[in-house]
From TrEMBL, chain A:
<keyword id="KW-0812">Transmembrane</keyword>
<feature type="domain" description="Cytochrome b/b6 N-terminal region profile">
    <location>
        <begin position="5"/>
        <end position="224"/>
    </location>
</feature>
<dbReference type="Pfam" id="PF00033">
    <property type="entry name" value="Cytochrome_B"/>
</dbReference>
<dbReference type="GO" id="GO:0009055">
    <property type="term" value="F:electron transfer activity"/>
</dbReference>
<feature type="transmembrane region" description="Helical">
    <location>
        <begin position="126"/>
        <end position="146"/>
    </location>
</feature>
<keyword id="KW-0813">Transport</keyword>
<keyword id="KW-1003">Cell membrane</keyword>
<feature type="transmembrane region" description="Helical">
    <location>
        <begin position="193"/>
        <end position="215"/>
    </location>
</feature>
<dbReference type="GO" id="GO:0016491">
    <property type="term" value="F:oxidoreductase activity"/>
</dbReference>
UniProtKB/TrEMBL annotation, chain B:
<feature type="domain" description="Cytochrome b/b6 C-terminal region profile">
    <location>
        <begin position="27"/>
        <end position="154"/>
    </location>
</feature>
<dbReference type="GO" id="GO:0009055">
    <property type="term" value="F:electron transfer activity"/>
</dbReference>
<protein>
    <submittedName>
        <fullName>Menaquinol-cytochrome c reductase cytochrome b/c subunit</fullName>
    </submittedName>
</protein>
<dbReference type="InterPro" id="IPR051811">
    <property type="entry name" value="Cytochrome_c550/c551-like"/>
</dbReference>
<keyword id="KW-0349">Heme</keyword>
<keyword id="KW-0812">Transmembrane</keyword>
<keyword id="KW-0472">Membrane</keyword>
<keyword id="KW-0813">Transport</keyword>
<dbReference type="GO" id="GO:0016491">
    <property type="term" value="F:oxidoreductase activity"/>
</dbReference>
Length: 224, 259
């Protein structure tokens, strides 16, 4: 039955080469913890991806309740946390995932760095990876404001003050992020929400795609 | 791509009519104990992922995500703190050589050099040798960078009393109560000294707590009005028994309106 369905699609779209491209790649001995336990350091990149998937899924469920508006943002989070079935778990996963993903990214970066895996011909993929790290930090920064509690509000105020003091582009940057040169308020919340939910994830997905395609094309770096 | 005469397509499409076999590559000729990703290695990854997920869910179940009170710009003396992975930058900006007139150094030049160096590492450390011993400068700069980040994070976080912070900022649902100013009790509230400390809308003040969101009966309120409680001295209420009853009923009614 499944085979027939597959053949039906394959005849029309020729998906076998595409599928073999995804499925057929070797896992060399030196990266396989089943053969050398120390190869567990190669897991950090995959775990980063795993936590990113958790973040995407839990974030999607959070937006089913979250309201990006200064009157209701905190109330919707409070409601989610106290009333909604499993709301505390979903929000907890998103909250802790944000920290765990930074830890995993850090460990993955260290692994690549200390193995010198960024050397020719993998320079581009290293730079894409560092940009991914920056985007993840941006997601953390913008997500911190969204519950609209005191720590979110005052931390964001400090962040925007720091941005404002940057010469030449500081004030424009602050206005772009906060929606107003002076007020941290309704506009700031909607802008951070848009950045957190649309702009940065879009950039994240694009760069992740490049990151993975490059790994597949170049193969994993050899043993030291 | 295969081109030329003799090619057959599916209908008028560009999909070739020739089917390719859907069989995995043979890895037996590869060096070492190379394994196929699908499905052998993926199954192991799946198991590791499941163990990781269980640990992660234990963490979320044991420590619910924190939430403080609703953002209130008028909160006095709130000490702002960023999320823990920004603490090192936050701490760096507190030092004399990185703040005030040297702000540009602290906020742009130093982090710019550090993160720019990280981004351009393959070009700064561009010799072919990959071993740690073959690139002492890059490795020692990285270790210095990591050590400073850890040190700055520690310096920033060690002086914070996290438990007190959490206790002082517990989330409380702001209660919106209706003050019925035509209630005879409100008049009593105004004419006695209550309003001076507890405020026009029972919102409380520096000398007295709010009278909203309290869980007291009429008799308990009557007792407190006459005999005082905590810092509130006795003898504050100077009206008749009937007025006392009206006052207590008024306060209870306001509290019920907020539920």
């Amino acid at each position: 039955m499944l085979q027939k369905l597959y053949d039906w699609v394959d005849e029309r779209v020729d998906i076998t080469p595409l599928w073999r491209d995804i499925a057929d790649h070797e896992v060399p001995e030196h990266v396989n913890p089943a053969h050398h336990f120390s190869a567990f350091v190669y897991c950090f990149g995959g775990l980063t991806f795993f936590v990113t998937v958790i973040q995407i899924l839990s974030g999607m469920f959070l937006t089913m309740y979250y309201v990006p508006d200064i009157e209701n943002a905190w109330r919707s989070v409070y409601y989610l946390q106290t009333e909604v079935a499993h709301g505390q778990i979903v929000r907890g996963m998103h909250h802790w995932g944000a920290s765990v993903v930074i830890v995993m990214l850090f460990l993955h970066t260290l692994r690549v760095f200390f193995q010198g895996a960024y050397k020719k011909p993998r320079e581009l993929n290293w730079m894409v990876g560092v940009l991914l790290f920056f985007i993840m930090l941006g997601l953390g920064l913008t997500g911190y404001l969204l519950p609209w509690d005191n720590k979110a509000y005052f931390a964001t105020q400090v962040t925007l003050e720091i941005a404002e003091k940057v010469p030449f582009i500081g004030e424009a940057t602050k206005t772009l992020l906060a929606g107003d040169p002076n007020i941290v308020g309704a506009q700031t919340l909607t802008r951070f929400f848009a950045i957190h939910v649309f702009f940065l994830p879009a950039a994240l997905f694009a760069l992740m795609a490049v990151h993975f395609i490059l790994i597949r094309k170049q193969g994993i770096s050899g043993p030291l | 791509m295969h081109k030329g005469k003799g090619m057959k397509f599916v209908g008028d499409s560009r999909i070739t009519a020739e089917r390719k076999p859907n069989i995995p590559k043979d890895y037996s000729e590869y060096p070492g104990k190379t394994e196929a990703f699908w499905p052998n290695f993926l199954l192991k990854e799946w198991l590791v992922g499941a163990v990781f997920l269980v640990g992660f869910l234990c963490l979320t179940a044991a420590h619910p995500a924190p939430l403080e009170g609703i953002a209130d710009p008028t909160t006095a003396g709130y000490i702002p703190l960023p999320d823990w992975y920004f603490l090192f930058l936050y701490q760096f900006l507190k030092y004399e050589f990185a703040s005030g007139p040297y702000f540009v150094i602290g906020a742009i030049v130093a982090p710019g050099l550090a993160f720019g160096g990280l981004l351009l590492a393959p070009f700064l450390d561009n010799r072919p040798g990959r071993k740690v011993s073959q690139r002492p400068i890059a490795v020692s700069l990285m270790i210095l960078g990591i050590a400073s980040v850890f040190w700055l994070t520690y310096e920033s976080a060690a002086h914070v009393d996290w438990e007190t912070r959490a206790e002082q900022n517990t989330p409380e649902m702001p209660v919106e109560v209706e003050i019925d100013e035509s209630h005879p009790g409100y008049e009593v509230y105004q004419n006695n000294s209550c309003i001076q400390c507890h405020g026009e809308s029972l919102e409380g003040g520096a000398a007295a707590p709010a009278l909203t969101n309290i869980d007291l009966s009429v008799d308990e309120i009557k007792d407190i009005a006459v005999n005082g409680i905590g810092d509130m001295p006795p003898g504050q209420f100077e009206g008749s028994d009937e007025e006392l009853q009206q006052l207590a009923e008024f306060i209870v009614q306001v509290n019920e309106s907020g539920d």
